[in-house]
From TrEMBL:
Pfam families noted in UniProt: NMT1_2, PBP2_Ca3427_like
Major site of localization recorded for this protein: periplasm
Any one cellular-component term (Gene Ontology): periplasmic space
Organism: Blastobotrys adeninivorans (Yeast)
Name of this protein: ARAD1D31878p
Lineage: Eukaryota, Fungi, Dikarya, Ascomycota, Saccharomycotina
Highest taxon listed in the record's lineage: Eukaryota
Family the UniProt entry places it in: Belongs to the bacterial solute-binding protein SsuA/TauA family.
Domain Ca3427-like PBP residues, every copy: 92-189
Keyword Signal recorded: yes
InterPro entries membership: Ca3427-like_PBP2
Keywords: Signal
Cellular localization per UniProt: Periplasm
């Protein structure tokens, strides 16, 4: 008797980091695990996925460590961290408008207005980390601008969005718009933690069917990562054909990224404890954040 198939809705950001997920689909690895995966895209990023997990629109979300940790540290209990996806840090580019001659370096955005995709997103959290790193006490103002195009319009003072002075986004996703002259880079900052984790809704995790399906999903993603690691040319083709990157930029990114070998493993010290400590020092989280349960480890 054939094993029944379980459907999982997995939220993801439609960027280059998603490539192993789709290799796993195209190579039949999910089907082999009796899991059907539906991938709703979230171009606005991790903050939007946190909202979607709460609304039960998705079961699983793959996104930025700092945003997911920050959400739980502020009291969100509708999801838990269940896995790690990318081991390497994220390189956040700091950008402003191409013609903003008054902004020449990171020092020029101290206490200024920062465009963010959503409250609680990585683009919202990382400016606090930047301010801590720079020793600034001036408070940023934030404008929620939903998506990457609006962020670019904000710093250029064009379109219908409110004007801003800078925003932060992943460097290779941003590079195309440096090359076109639409925006300019004034700096960058690396995350001091592994950059991408996997989360699942608390409701999904409490069902035996959900827990079993998640194990199958993990096995398939591990195979997708292994396939990615041994098929870089195919990865470049996928990224440059299906996503908003040139082949040259895709190849450059491949030299910087390290996916984990086993997505089911979460190092609490580096993923949770270190991130919480840094976010506390940057005043993103308060002392009570140390009391929350961030991980679900009983799969």
């Amino acid at each position: 008797m054939s094993k029944s198939t379980t459907t999982i809705k997995v939220g993801y950001v439609p960027e280059h980091f998603s490539t192993p997920l789709f290799f796993a689909r195209d190579q039949g690895y999910y089907a082999k695990q009796s899991v059907e995966v539906v991938f709703p895209p979230f171009p606005s990023g991790t903050g939007h996925m946190i909202q979607a997990l709460k609304a039960k629109e998705i079961d699983v979300a793959i996104g930025l460590t700092e945003a997911f940790v920050s959400g739980i540290g502020k009291g969100a209990d509708h999801y838990k961290i269940v896995g790690t996806y990318v081991q390497s840090p994220l390189n956040w580019a700091i950008s402003t408008g191409a013609k903003r001659d008054e902004i020449k370096s990171v020092d020029d955005i101290k206490g200024k207005t920062i465009g963010i995709s959503r409250l609680g997103s990585g683009s919202n959290v990382m400016p606090f980390v930047l301010a801590k790193q720079q020793g600034w006490t001036d408070q940023f103002e934030f404008e929620i601008q939903d998506n990457f195009k609006n962020l670019r319009d904000g710093v250029n003072h064009t379109g219908s969005v409110k004007p801003t002075d800078a925003f932060m986004w992943e460097v290779f996703t941003t590079k195309k718009y440096y090359d076109s002259g639409e925006i300019k880079q004034i700096g960058n900052i690396y995350t001091p933690w592994p950059s991408w984790v996997i989360t699942a809704s608390s409701t999904f995790l409490t069902s035996s069917e959900g827990a079993a399906a998640l194990k199958g999903f993990f096995n398939a993603v591990n195979e997708g990562i292994a396939y990615f690691n041994s098929h870089h040319d195919e990865a470049v083709t996928h990224i440059s054909t299906n996503l908003d990157y040139s082949a040259e930029d895709a190849r450059a990114w491949l030299k910087t990224v390290q996916f984990v070998d086993n997505v089911a493993v979460v190092d609490k010290g580096t993923i949770v404890d270190k991130t919480v400590e840094i976010l506390q020092s940057a005043d993103v989280l308060d002392d009570s954040s140390a009391n929350y349960a961030y991980l679900h480890t009983t799969l």
